[in-house]
Write a structure and sequence with these properties.
With about 220 residues, this protein is α+β, with helices and mostly antiparallel strands. It has helices spanning about 5-10, 25-35, 115-130, 130-145, 150-165, 170-180, 190-200, 210-220, and strands at about 40-50, 55-65, 70-80, 85-95, 100, 105. Strands 1, 2, 3, 4, 5 and 6 form a six-stranded antiparallel β-sheet that branches. The radius of gyration is 18 Å and the shape is globular.
């Protein structure tokens, strides 16, 4: 797992007439300032990046939640023009650090010369509505806990995630199958258990696809609640 020190070491690309990069640490520090303004305390930080650090993903777990999940803020950035700065409010399953995201990523349209003016507004909008977003996820979680599934039904859903929806890769399919068969943390055979089998597999996602994959998986699974 990367640290903030690792992110600082990644070279920031040159600014051009049409492109203004947002250094990873400016993004992180701005998020932290906004969280402090809203009295939200970071309890855990996690970062990931591709091999050259050109695409970065991070999660801040926060001090609001219940017995099994808490609020988080997920964010992304890039130094290669592939991804605009993006944020989304979600949840973290405490026992296993599995992620929950729904809705859409709020993102800057592009890294233009006015990017810093828009960055502050973007982060404020996501954080100010984060508690509401978390409450919606909590409602979904409780619905999933009430839906029982057989192993056969879980296998069918896993196949659809892989073949029809193309949300998980072959490697992730193997992880998902193993979770269905052997998970000790989620063994009650509910849709919530299957959801966590899926999000466990999605931990192997590329940084650029991690948030979108979780959002797509949530949209797919919750329809069966």
């Amino acid at each position: 797992m990367l640290t903030e020190y690792d992110l600082v070491q990644i070279d920031v690309p040159e600014r051009t007439h049409s492109y203004t990069p947002v250094p990873h640490m400016i993004l992180l520090n701005t998020i932290k300032e906004k969280l402090d303004k809203h009295n939200l305390i970071i309890t855990q930080s996690r970062y990931a990046a591709n091999f050259h650090g050109k695409q970065m993903f991070g999660v801040y777990d926060l001090n609001i939640g219940g017995s099994d999940t808490n609020l988080n803020i997920g964010f992304r950035n890039s130094y290669d023009k592939t991804l605009p700065v993006g944020l989304v409010a979600g949840g973290t399953v405490i026992v296993c650090s599995n992620l929950m995201f729904k809705g859409e990523i709020k993102a800057l349209r592009k890294h233009t010369k006015n990017v810093y003016n828009d960055l502050d507004t973007l982060i404020e909008n996501v954080i100010s509505t984060s508690v509401y977003q978390y409450e919606q996820l909590t409602e979904d979680k409780e619905k999933m806990k009430l839906k029982l599934l057989s192993k056969t039904e879980m296998a069918e859903l896993a196949g659809r995630l892989y073949v029809e929806e193309k949300i998980i890769s072959p490697t992730q399919m193997s992880i998902l199958a193993d979770e269905i068969r052997n998970s000790e943390l989620f063994s009650d055979n509910t849709l919530w258990d299957f959801y966590n089998h899926t999000t466990e597999a999605l931990k192997k996602s590329h940084p650029s696809k991690l948030i979108p994959s979780h959002i797509k998986a949530h949209e797919f699974v919750i329809q069966f609640a």
